[in-house]
Amino acid sequence: MNQLALRIFLILAFIPLMIFIGYGILIIAPIFSAYFAINSYKFNNYKEMYFWIFIGMLCFTVALFALGVL
Q: Which of 15, 24, 34, 42 is the most buried (most CB within 10 A)?
């Protein structure tokens, strides 16, 4: 098989996989942010806690937009 055709086919085959992984990261990111916020609260680091809460809210909003909910 032609090497160029094989490379094009492999690149096209990875596009849906990358989209799937990207949506997975969008969904998992707020969960990690919440974990980091809880961990910061345990160590009485309120400035970092509010930072992770803000990042979590931002990730959650972006995930809702990307998934078509909002």
A: 34
